[in-house]
Design goal:
Blueprint (H helix, E strand, L loop, with lengths): L5 E2 L9 H10 L14 E3 L5 E3 L6 E3 L14 E3 L5 E3 L7 E7 L8 H12 L4 E7 L11 H12 L18 H8 L15 E4 L5 E5 L8 H12 L2
């Protein structure tokens, strides 16, 4: 199966000034390809290849082995506190997003819902994980978060209970996403609305930073390709 896109944009922020500064400072941590390419696309074919954002020419790279058993092995809690097995998504494509209600990127809920409406019947789900790790931008209760999302954006995709995506209390799901995926996709989440594209086997095949819009054709093309791959 083809693996797909890893995109690290440098611009296109829609954040208040202080949030933008915090976000950029977070990006000073050396991440794979982030510092050396003006936006990078990683294609995990046999052996893998990278496409330089300036030249558009592919160069070989090794994506590294995938460890663990895939992210669908984990359980999470829904907004009511009930345990939900992510194995319910076995065989389906998911876009896992750490969301927040008071972020400069909160408007992306609308486009995430558009993805859900567009692809749901083809075996795809956006999956939201509220987290209060960045700027205290998700302070509400699970009930308040659900009410906000449904009343403001009409969301129908799963939005689970609050978790931590960073630090000592990082949820096991995010340990798998950020530490046990192929090497090119590893690294701590740096802000709200980072997006992990996961295939039907629970393997991360793409990672998109917060500034990548859900409607970006690099993301939608990746979803289209995954859905078309047996």
């Amino acid at each position: 199966m083809r693996g797909l896109l890893l995109f690290y944009p440098k611009d296109s922020y829609r954040l208040p000034l202080m949030e933008a500064v915090m976000h950029r400072l977070g990006w000073l941590t050396p991440l794979v390809l982030c510092a050396c390419m003006n936006g990078a696309v990683v294609n995990l074919d046999a052996g893998g290849s990278t496409t330089d954002g300036d030249s558009g020419m592919p160069t070989p790279t090794d994506a590294g082995p995938v460890t663990g058993q895939g992210v669908y092995q984990h359980d999470v809690q829904d907004a009511a506190g009930l345990t939900i097995a992510l194995s319910r998504f076995n065989g389906e494509i998911t876009l896992m997003v750490n969301v927040a209600s008071r972020c400069g990127y909160t408007y992306q809920y609308e486009a995430l819902q558009d993805l859900q409406s567009r692809y749901f019947n083809q075996g795809f789900n956006v999956v939201g994980f509220p987290a209060n790790n960045f700027g205290n931008q998700e302070p509400g209760t699970n009930e308040e978060i659900q009410e906000f999302c449904t009343s403001t954006y009409g969301t129908t995709f799963p939005i689970f209970g609050k978790i931590s995506v960073l630090g000592d209390d990082k949820h096991p799901l995010y340990i798998s996403l950020t530490e046990e995926s192929a090497e090119d996709f590893r690294g701590e989440v740096s802000w709200n609305f980072e997006k992990f594209l996961v295939n039907g086997a629970g393997v991360v095949v793409g990672r998109f930073r917060s500034a990548v819009e859900p409607s970006d054709e690099r993301l939608t093309d990746a979803i289209d390709t995954l859905l078309a791959t047996p």
